[in-house]
Amino acid sequence: MEILGYLLAIIVGISLGLIGSGGSILTVPILVYILGVNPPLATAYSLFIVGSTALVGGVQSALQKRVDFKTVIIFGIPSIVAVYATRMWLMPFLPNEIFTIGSLIITKSIGLMLLFAVVMILASVTMINSKKIQQTDDNLPRVYNYPMIFLDGTFVGLLTGLVGAGGGFLIIPALVLLLQMPMKLAVGTSLFIIAAKSLIGFIGDLQGSEIIDWKLLSIFTSFAVAGIFVGIILSKKIPSQKLKKGFGWFVLAMGIYIIIKELFFK
Fold first, then answer.
1. Is the pTM of this model over 0.90?
2. pLDDT over 70 for what percent of the chain?
3. Cβ atoms within 10 A of the Cβ of 40, count?
4. What per-residue string of b and e applies to 78-89 under the rule 16 or more CB within 10 Å gives b?
5. Domain around 257
6. Tally of domains within the chain
């Protein structure tokens, strides 16, 4: 099972390299169900793994001039603040037993996995229903809707802090729709934003009492980084729209599976 978990880490990297999102949607279930990591700690591990992998992909994109660093700063600052605050103060504040429904006790671990499953389903719907976005000229000046970017960045940061999701499926549509950014530029910019807020969010966990399994993290991250290079190569050969829809259906199935497992087969 451990070897299987590390091999699946390659898929995490491939997803980030191909469509700029989906890494954390796979990382948390792999850590929890394959490698046996408890959900709250798995969300912390996901921040490090996805953040490190996205950073490698972001650097690759930057070398190809596919990163808008002004947007990274504008979107990233509220997102980083939100994810750090969530990991540092909100997560430790959550009780071990959140609420009960009859004989069903929703613990912190179950609640986080259910929230993650809802995020997966919402992300899958976005991927499945995504339409080809009209490309815009990267040389045209972009108009920055600062209030909307700030709100979206804060929301994505909160989501990242709670479930360890990088939020690429929220960041990329925001960049394309709010800034009229070309898709390839949006993917590269998204990777840098994901890297910054995920790694800083993980720092919030280091200041807690959790014991970090650095061996597991380093091996898993190494496989994921290898995967992102594969994803970048494949992105030049596979139509991203078809890939995103196929991945969306897989994510939808995984989200439904997690809900059923957590509620009925725990």
1. no
2. 89
3. 20
4. bbbebbbbbbbe
5. 2-264
6. 1
